[in-house]
Amino acid sequence: MPQYLSNDVALYVTKTVEAAYNDGSATGSNYAKIRSQQASFVLPQVEFLNDAGVPGNGHEFATQWCANYLTHPAVTFTDDVNYAIAGRLALRALGGTVTTAQQGGTTAYKHSCSMLPIASGRQYPSFAMAAELGGASHRFAGCVVDRFRLSQNRADRPQYSADIVGSGKFTTPHGLTSLPSTMDIAACLTGAGVSVYWTDADGTTTFSGSGCTLRSWSVEVANNLRLNDRCPGDSTQTLTYDATTTTPAFAGKLLRGSRTVTAQLVILLDSTVVPWERYVTGQELTDVTFKAQSTAEAGTAYKYTINYIIPKARITSVDPTDSEGDAAITINLTGMYDSVTGGALKAEVINQETTNYV
Prior knowledge:
Blueprint: E1 10-14, E2 31-34, E3 46-50, E4 65-70, E5 74-80, H1 84-92, E6 99-102, E7 109-114, E8 127-132, E9 138-153, E10 159-165, E11 170-171, E12 195-200, E13 203-206, E14 214-222, E15 239-241, E16 244-246, E17 260-268, H2 276-280, E18 284-296, E19 303-323, E20 326-335, E21 346-351
């Protein structure tokens, strides 16, 4: 009997979003292979109800076991930002309409979106996900990005982390065919290519550079998906095991809750940092930009890039800290509503994808 290691797991995400929620995708070439630094695998889960200990049963043991509904599959991807699917998830986490513009007549294209305004709806762009490991192969529909985070420590390559949640709808094909055997690799983003800056009352302040002032940073969007938005009209799926047929329901929508945008910078104290009281007054900052880049793309002056930009932010707290013996401060930011973009965060991805990059 063959045995498998954790690194034998293969996970895939569709390159395009669903035309309608829970559509899924059976086309193998539409999937991109995912890499994750932590072991990740997804299996269908069914919530069952039983009558154990129920008055009238007569004892504490179950005599009836009924399928209630399919629960939400969930998985977290964590990796260096070095392949194209990270940019797609960064855009899907914001939910806005993606616009694509060619850059200077070259092969580089910039894909941009802003957080989805409440008037445009609460269902975020959904996609399908596939998991493959021996006989435990499944395809899941209705997947949405619940949380997306970009970060960097010192000069390490920037990383991303994404929490993915699905509706529960799944299929068990007899072998997932035509799926890509390799990852969709893009140019590696380097630690040296990172730039973090904002604009305040004194103009533009840049924290990255050769002076090593910036020790770490992170920016995160949390969509706080409503995992209990079930209703009597939700679709059901027929499951048959040991001659017993059940029809548990799966979620027909996965709406976002109250979104939050947060960021953090750890900065060494030195003569170039403005007086600390400037930070603790809660002043408003504009265009707080976290830019992660690679070297220039072949044939162009443009770089593979992922930008997260907070158009309007407030400093919520400034805390003293220690960075390996050096005095430092931790600056925490909260994204505010920006009437121009209709939200509190913008995303930009530059690569050589021409259309349908979302």
